[in-house]
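Quarterly update from the structural biology core.
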Amino acid sequence: MNRFINYLDRKIGKYAIPNLPLYMVICYAIGYLMELINPDICLVLSLNPYAILHGQVWRLVSWLLIPPDSLDFWTLLVLYFYFSIGMTLERTWGRFYFNYYIFSGIIFTIIGAFALYGYDVLFQAEAMAVVNASFGELPWIYGIEFAYAAESLYFSTFYVNMSIFLAFAATYPDMQVLIFFILPIKVKVLAVIYVILLAVAAYRMGILGVFIIGASLLNFILFFLATRKGTRMSMAQRKRQVEYKRKVKSATPPKIAKHKCAICGRTAEEYPDLEFRFCSKCEGNYEYCQEHLFTHQHKRRM
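Predicted structure, tokenized:
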């Protein structure tokens, strides 16, 4: 699999979307606006394999507009947190690897939705029991399509964001964050807590949790196994390279301009297209750009 990722990087890496976390937040903002206009819009946008197979193919993409939670102050803080760690991962891994991780998580979620649909078709009695436990008998009373619609509401970008945090924790395990802006805790400890909460949620959800939560975790596991060894550069190596470049940049003294205009102060580094010349009539070591070479007042020693 690592060879496949490297192959994609060579072939299509230049087409990777820059600032992908920003576009994800924009999608959430559009979703919140649509929910404000029509609170039931999620039923039309959700990742519903039954509806997709019956012609509503836009759902393969439209479910990405469904926000991970209801809009409030804490949700905005959480989204900002995911946005910031997403941008950090993009700078550390590079655009292509971050794009690959996000889009593979989306694909795994879609596969999980269709796998659950296949399970429902094969074991409809058990599927009815799962939906009844979560939503009551109402979906089945109104027909099988309503039952599938109820299940599809579980598939959202929430677990895609969760996989972003797990990837961040695997890349920066010793970084500290402030819980409630007060309590410092290392990211790796917080990741363990997240995994435990995911396991508990999957257990309570039963077969739904296997397909929904399992899809996002599978993406995380496969990605880091594929990039651990045998790639041109693992995620840990990319992190070390970024940190090294940052230290070198901070330790490197600023460049001294070789050519600088004595009138306007422009340099050859800032304006490589300008020509600079010394004036033979000025008494001293004075250099001018092409705009001030013949218009300046000659310098004379006192």
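The mean pLDDT is 78.
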